[in-house]
Amino acid sequence: MINKHQPIINNFLGIEKLNNRLFGHFGERFAHTDIRIPDFSDYRRSEVQDPKNSSQKSSEARRAFSYLITGSTAVLGVYTAKTAVTQFVSSMSASADVLALSKIEIKLNDIPEGKNMTFKWRGKPLFVRHRTEKEIATEANVDLSELRDPQHDTDRVVKPSWVIVIGVCTHLGCVPIANAGEYGGYYCPCHGSHYDASGRIRKGPAPLNLEVPYYEFPDEDTVIVG
């Protein structure tokens, strides 16, 4: 059975829905006046607590404080970097036992005049030559203009009687033969380099003189190399 009042009810419901669509939003609350504004007073410096006062009056003091903080941070950073670098370099430095192995002590009494002895030092041959008076005079009088790698004999020795050089040819790293060659010093058979009794290159492809290591004489009969 159809209700005769149904059309009226439907019309009323339709108008109600339309009113809700048109005017429903006006009933919603968009103003959030209950939200609390953040207060940063605890983080502000005392000079700028009052918003009514100009910040220009305290700008110098605040700028100086900022510079102080920046400078202190920079100094701390530099000191930290220095400490790190120092520790890194120290870790790479040779220990005492390694340094001890890098030196060799040689008794000179064991080397007769006019003879050459070979020692092993830092994995390389070390030539120690006891020169005669004739060899000393000959090498001291060599004209430097004749030398490929000019060095006076006195610049290569601490004591004229003793020549101490590393026995590695400066051409390709071969080991020269002592008391040999055209100049009576050292001769490299690999490619024919001739060195004199001061270890200076005189003939052949080698570009430089034999290397002279650091050494010292603690007494008359002993030399320490390294």
UniProtKB/TrEMBL annotation:
Belongs to the Rieske iron-sulfur protein family. The keyword 4Fe-4S does not apply. Its cofactor is [2Fe-2S] cluster. GO terms for molecular function: 2 iron, 2 sulfur cluster binding; metal ion binding; quinol-cytochrome-c reductase activity. Residues 156-224 form the Rieske domain. It comes from Hemibagrus guttatus. This is Cytochrome b-c1 complex subunit Rieske, mitochondrial. CDD domains: Rieske_cytochrome_bc1 (cd03470). Binds 1 [2Fe-2S] cluster per subunit. SUPFAM superfamilies: ISP domain, ISP transmembrane anchor. The Rieske protein is a high potential 2Fe-2S protein. Keywords: 2Fe-2S, Disulfide bond, Electron transport, Iron, Iron-sulfur, Membrane, Metal-binding, Mitochondrion, Respiratory chain, Transmembrane, Transmembrane helix, Transport. The keyword Manganese does not apply. It is found in: Membrane; Mitochondrion inner membrane. InterPro entries: bc1_Rieske_TM_sf, Rieske_2Fe-2S, Rieske_2Fe-2S_sf, Rieske_Fe-S_prot, Rieske_Fe-S_prot_C, Rieske_TM, Ubiquinol_cyt_c_Rdtase_Fe-S-su. It comes from the Eukaryota. It holds the Pfam family Rieske. It is a single-pass membrane protein. It catalyses: a quinol + 2 Fe(III)-[cytochrome c](out) = a quinone + 2 Fe(II)-[cytochrome c](out) + 2 H(+)(out). It is an enzyme of class 7 (translocase).
